[in-house]
Amino acid sequence: MHCPFCRHADSRVIDSRTAEDGASIRRRRQCPSCGRRFTTLETSSLTVVKRSGASEPFSRDKVVAGVRKACQGRPVSDDDLALLAQQVEEAVRASGAAQIDAHEIGLAILGPLRQLDEVAYLRFASVYSSFSSLEDFESAIATLRSDRSDRDPDSSAGSDDGEASGRADRAGSASLGGAVEPEQAPAH
């Protein structure tokens, strides 16, 4: 590390501390030539290589923005999206690579998004995986159902009956809803 004062090519580390966010290291250094002290902040960089070949720094905000579209109208909070973006960044950084394809980030999003909201997962996967037919959706839904039944075998046994009766109840109330007229107040 060059001294910013005398440009000497070396410096001695006096103290190292992790910064507040844990993503960087603050080092206090001293130049052996001039004796002056200075501070450096070291962070690891993560570069995303897009399909076009362009590269840009990784951004949690871009992950959140992309997933937010899939979560429109779903019970997903901003805190949930921030946590998802953090999980994605941790997964991507765990690979140890300084450069990562945008495709890999999309794959890293799918797992946490599936845990967060299955409908949002299907929306995101349909765009990300370029679903081109109903069979693509049916296959993804079948996979979700089989995974759910593997996790909780009791939940799949009664779910079809409950869904069918719920549909019948909704259909019945919808047909009755139009036939019922409001009571009119008596004329004086």
UniProtKB/TrEMBL annotation:
Manner of cofactor binding, per the entry note: Binds 1 zinc ion.
Cofactors that this protein relies on: Zn(2+)
Keyword Transcription regulation recorded: yes
Lineage top rank: taxon: Bacteria
Domain named ATP-cone: residues: 46-136
Single annotated GO MF: ATP binding
GO biological process, any: negative regulation of DNA-templated transcription
Biased composition (Basic and acidic residues): 145-154
Protein known as: Transcriptional repressor NrdR
Organism: Georgenia yuyongxinii
